[in-house]
Amino acid sequence: MSFFRDFVGPERFYRVGVVALPTAAVLGVLGPLLIGQSNLSILGLYLAIPMLAGSIIVRKTQPVTYEYAFTEYDIDWRIPSILFHCTVAVLVIVLILTPVRPTIFYFGVAVLYTLTFFQAATADGKELVVLYQLVVAYLLVIFSVTLNYALFVGRTDLSGHISSANHVLETGSTAGLSPTYEPFPLWHVFVAESTLISGGWLETHTSMYLLSGFIFAAGILGMYALAARVLSMKKFALFAAFVMVCFPLYLFYGMYSIARSVTSVLFLLLLLTLMIRRSDSQRVVVLLLIVAIVIYHPVSIPFVLVLLAGVALTERFLDTRVPIVDTYVLGVAAGFTTIYWFYRAEFIVGRLTASIIGMFTGPSPSTGPESVELSPWVEVANYVPYSFLILLLLLGFLFWYQQPTLSRSTFASLALFSVLIVPLVFPGPTLLLDSLVGVNVGRFGHYSFMFVALTGGYGLYELVRRGGVRTFFVILVLVSCLSFTAVSNDFVASDNPIIERPFYTFYFTEHERSSLEHVGATFEEPMAADRPACRYLRSFEATECERISVDGEGELFDEYDTVLLRHHENEKRPLQFSRYVYEDEISAANIELRNKPYDSGSVAMYTR
């Protein structure tokens, strides 16, 4: 490693980066074209453009010696603060008056984000005000979905978690939970207890949404504290927190109130604890946080362990002065995980073993969403916020390594590590990795937002610091575009995305929910339906349901005696059977020739 360090040392990273990035960008777009994969070339644009732009911007700017560019301007912080609260009031009224969040809501949130960033950049000594506004803006985005619609289920795992929490609430015991969730009941107990404390005022799923939202809002404060520990600059710490609330996965998992979501915030707190000077009490807290991650969601710890090991290797490579990840941390994480898995979650060991065997003996995994193949431009449009984030991340990396004397600091290690894990964190590259290794590599993005925020926050900090007033206005435009695309893409805003992907909506309407409850209570026969409806019926109504397969020969529904279709959803989106099926395909299958014992207008049942 020492030879490699000498050959490609930290002092060379900047010079190599400004050449390698545009070269890789061009090859990444032209390469797939040469082999006839134009859709991958289109998808690669969201990576190529920030790689080219980052190299150009860094070449055109020069390091500065003064601390900050806007300290000489006397800007009254109360003006943007008043505008912020007025905008919040207007957006709340919009939510009350509209059944589905309109496009104007996303513009309003972009205004909130931009006003908050403006205050972070110009108001000295108002860190608490900026953090408060970041928390308010974030919670507005989160709760405008989870508390605004009848039942948010996200990618459908939430149905099982709500059902498990209901079971704990009704029986007062974790005995009898499904085998999938039985090894990690702590989240379900927490939600059930919170529902009990409310005295019945809150439903179980509402308690779950509130807890998740507030935990992730607290993560904003944790991110600020972590950034301030890494670099003792309050402006940078505010910018890092701002970048984090623009990361679509951080927005989505604040909504997606499952046990796995909580572990990402616990990992953030673990990294914050590792930044504290080592002592017996610090090591006890480290141990408790690792134990909490494992107990809340045992499947999260392998991803956390890989990330910790990656940070440790990066620190060893750079010979970081004070490494934050030592053998104690890795040993405790690996040791407790092994003990817990074998004594409490042995099914995970079996599942992992089967997955490893399947990687070598089973069929090739899916290459990713159909939209990448069929609608690459739509996919790229939804990746735009990731393009902005990659740009800021690359700028932070290059700006830092322009200063070779700083290459042995903790931030230098974290910045290098954040660049190395880009293929694991951002969508697009993960689709290829998933297909190659047969593992959900994209899960790393759920646990890596803090690395993106740290490095991207520094990129934003240096952009503002190196530019003048004109540059600052350009940065405000960039921040506004990042904010708007972050909250309006189809990964986060499935209710009314600016550009719709061929995917399902992440929530049930009140009408759909009451219809599914009626079906579950009235009909006893097994049925076939789309994936979200099936998970709802199995989790909440104990109804036997099978996801419809459309891969066989013959008519679409030939092999099923009873079929349930969500027609209201199908008018807007394709239904997720074994593949996504549009309304015209269902109409062509002559489903109307069957008996229709139930039709609520949004949900209908068809029998032979």
TrEMBL record:
The chain crosses the membrane at residues 12-34, 40-58, 79-98, 104-122, 129-151, 208-227, 236-253, 259-277, 284-313, 325-343, 348-363, 383-401, 413-432, 444-461, 468-487. Keywords: Membrane, Transmembrane, Transmembrane helix. The keyword Transmembrane helix applies. This is Uncharacterized protein. The lineage of its organism: Archaea, Methanobacteriati, Methanobacteriota, Stenosarchaea group, Halobacteria.
